[in-house]
Design a protein that fits this description.
This protein is an all-alpha fold. Helix content is 78%, strand content 0%.
């Protein structure tokens, strides 16, 4: 099932649209409207500055991707064949894993483009990249981990709503990006993992416990809702 989801994603025209959005954003952010620094930025700082903007862009792109993973088979009638051979819990697990794999591919693609832009803009720094590869890998892994609660929220919305892409996007805009949410509430929402853990590198015991609670609670709710949902139209 994971293979089928990846094939659907990579053979669809939409992959060019998603890739084009990421490429265009990087082009605008780092080439067209970039401010010329007084000194050459390190590769780590270059990636870090871009991640500050990508925490908005990547989740917005993920909303329709996760939505399609969970609604396409239902709408085309393929889900009734899956439930014959697999338990619903397995179907849910494979689809969530597919969403995470696709997210990791998007992050890798984004960082490859960023690396190419950095090399073009700073050809004299190419020899230093190998010393900062571990730092770049760490940022990518942290980015993916910070997005997992957001993905699971998108999954829940996709199970409950037919217009899940729109609803997911609205939820992200209102909760993750909103500055009107009190800080005490915002610190326990998934944006804590993007803002504090990823961007500010503030990883403490509370963040780890809160992350595990989000994963456990969202997985439990997703399993219960998906198991009771009528999958055959």
């Amino acid at each position: 099932m994971i293979k089928n989801e990846l094939i659907k994603f990579f053979t669809s025209l939409k992959i060019w649209i998603y890739g084009g959005i990421i490429f265009t954003f990087i082009l605008i952010n780092d080439v067209i409207f970039v401010d010329k620094p007084c000194e050459i930025a390190t590769f780590h700082n270059f990636l870090y500055d871009n991640v500050k903007s990508l925490v908005f862009v990547i989740p917005i792109i993920l909303a329709p991707i996760v939505s399609e993973i969970f609604t396409y088979d239902y709408e085309c009638g393929c889900m009734k064949f899956f439930v014959i051979y697999k338990r619903r819990e397995k179907i849910l697990f494979y689809k969530i894993l597919s969403s995470i794999i696709i997210t990791s591919i998007l992050i890798i693609f984004t960082f490859v483009i960023l690396t190419m832009v950095y090399i073009i803009e700073n050809p004299g720094e190419i020899n230093t990249l190998k010393y900062q590869a571990f730092s770049a890998m760490k940022i990518m892994i942290m980015f993916l981990i910070a997005l997992i609660p957001v993905i699971l929220i998108y999954v829940l919305i996709s199970i409950l709503s037919k217009n899940s892409a729109i609803v997911s996007l609205l939820v992200f805009l209102l909760v993750i990006m909103s500055d009107f949410i009190p800080k005490t509430i915002g610190d326990i929402t998934p944006r804590r993992f993007l803002w504090s853990c990823l961007l500010k590198n503030r990883i403490n015991n509370l963040s780890i416990v809160l992350f595990l609670v989000y994963i456990a609670v969202l997985m439990f709710i997703n399993i219960k809702v998906f198991s009771k949902k009528e999958l055959i139209q």
